[in-house]
Automatic annotation (TrEMBL):
Source organism (scientific name): Ostreococcus mediterraneus
GO molecular function annotation: protein folding chaperone; unfolded protein binding
GO annotation, biological process: protein refolding
Keyword Cell cycle annotated: no
A GO CC term attached to the entry: cytoplasm
Keywords per UniProt: Chaperone, Cytoplasm, Disulfide bond, Redox-active center, Zinc
Protein name (database record): Uncharacterized protein
Source taxon at top rank: Eukaryota
Keyword Cytoplasm: yes
């Protein structure tokens, strides 16, 4: 029939802080598993397949699946400044429209998932600071 029934594959990205032991375990475990396509045909989800790969890493698996990664300059002061710059990039007209409709602007950092609420006072203070510099 020339029909694809199932297809799978692995994409592993080794982060800079990964230990040599972790890399060795992954290099040993992945080739020893049935093909990813066979696992997909068995009905396993991506999470279940990843769990099979990570089972060899023992207690680190729970941390790896439950922690929220943090990337970039997400310290509180830097994050707030980045958020204010992002909102400023919308332009005064759009910012004023959002404030008129909602009374505030809710913004979430896509790196660390921190959500902040910016009020009109926050934006005025930020604008005043920009004008002083």
């Amino acid at each position: 029939d020339c029909e694809v029934i199932a297809a799978g594959g692995y994409m592993v990205q080794i982060l800079p802080f990964a230990s040599d032991e972790t890399i060795r375990v992954l290099e040993r475990v992945i080739p020893s598993l049935p093909s990813s396509t066979a696992l997909v045909q068995e009905g396993l989800t991506a999470r279940q397949i990843a769990q099979r790969v990570l089972d060899e890493l023992e207690e680190r698996v729970d941390l790896a699946t439950s922690m929220t990664p943090s990337y970039g300059p997400c310290e509180e002061d830097e994050l707030r400044q980045r958020m204010l710059r992002a909102v400023a990039s919308l332009g005064k007209e759009e910012v004023n429209q959002i404030l008129a409709e909602d009374g505030q602007i809710e913004i979430t950092c896509e790196f660390c998932k921190t959500t902040s609420i910016l009020t009109e006072q926050d934006l005025v203070a930020a604008q005043n600071e920009v004008e002083r510099t």
